[in-house]
Amino acid sequence: GGQPRNVQPFSDEDASIETMSHCSGFSDPASFTEDGPEVDEEATQEDLEYKLKGFIDLTLDKSAKTRQAALESLKSAFSSKILYEFIMERRMTLTDSIERCIKKGKSDEQCAAAGLACLLCVQMGSGIESEEIFKTLGPVLKKIVCDGTASIQARQACATCLGICCFIVTDDITELYSTMECLENIFTKAYQRDRDTNGVSSTHNTVLHISALLAWTLLLTICPMNEVKKKIEMHLCKLPSLLSCDDLNMRIAAGETLALLFELARETDADFFYEDMDLLTEKLRALATDGNKHRAKVDKRKQRSVFRDVLRAVEERDFPTEMVKFGPERMYIDCWVKKQTYETFKEILGSGMQYHLQSNDFLRNVFELGPPVMLDAATLKTMKIPRFER
């Protein structure tokens, strides 16, 4: 019966169980201070690193299922704990694994690898090491984004990854512009799908166009003002056509991008004037009060909520301030640029967003939060409000 097959170190189920059991406690630093026996943090850290080394090795496995499970396990750990020193020693190995999985893997594996690349750069922050990672992965990501034969999901994940990694690492202005151009070439195709007179029909490419538009918008927020002006002139007259798209998420992405463009335009020029203002506000008001019976109730509610804010931004230059709590700290999101940046990182970090806002130097720098607040276990314990009081 031929050679006996090697038993895999873990199945998909084991991978998720191992990672969950190991990483679930890292999403909240206060979990170390719960009542109960004291945890030996050094042993826990060693145990985690041992498992992570195993997952890194498994990203080279022959089985696509095993590679993907290993990538997902690494993503889980990277989003829920700061692992700077561990990653620093292995960044080239990780970069090579990610590159190989994006080039050779199928759709799901490519998506997992692109997600891990984002988290790798988030962990490393904006230093020379991240630049090296992006120099290697940038061309590979661009190739997939522009490859019409690749799966839409893989192209979508690579577009998001391209935007986030470029946002984190790019000091090189020409690299920033070429990345934006690559994303523009994708989402401007949505402009060209105007139907006869009134709207844009969504296609299976719409999810890709949305991701490219949002990634491009994120990069616009770090452009020099003269470039911002050029981009506003180029896109402000075309973006409103996407408000008529069949796809709710495309309408919302276009609306929020418009609000952000108006915010940036008014920052660069206090007397900024938009010629088709009446037509645009009419469109936005219709979406903010949409009662279309053919739309699902949840979709209508979501759309009306977003477009009320967009209309206020365009008409009244107003932004509804939101507050984000993490540990003992508070952060106020008081403009569209900050909102767009926060939503982007929340999307990739998931439940680990609060932990990273507390502990990740790079993210704290982006949101101008200053150095991390150092809290001892006793302070953390006193901060935990009993459920009854809460």
From TrEMBL:
Residues 1-38 are annotated as: Disordered. Residues 19-315 form the Interferon-related developmental regulator N-terminal domain. Keywords: Developmental protein, Differentiation. SUPFAM superfamilies: ARM repeat. It comes from the Eukaryota. Residues 360-390 form the Interferon-related developmental regulator C-terminal domain. GO terms for biological process: cell differentiation. Gene3D superfamilies: Leucine-rich Repeat Variant. InterPro entries: ARM-like, ARM-type_fold, IFRD, Interferon-rel_develop_reg_C, Interferon-rel_develop_reg_N. This is Interferon-related developmental regulator 1. It comes from Mystacornis crossleyi.
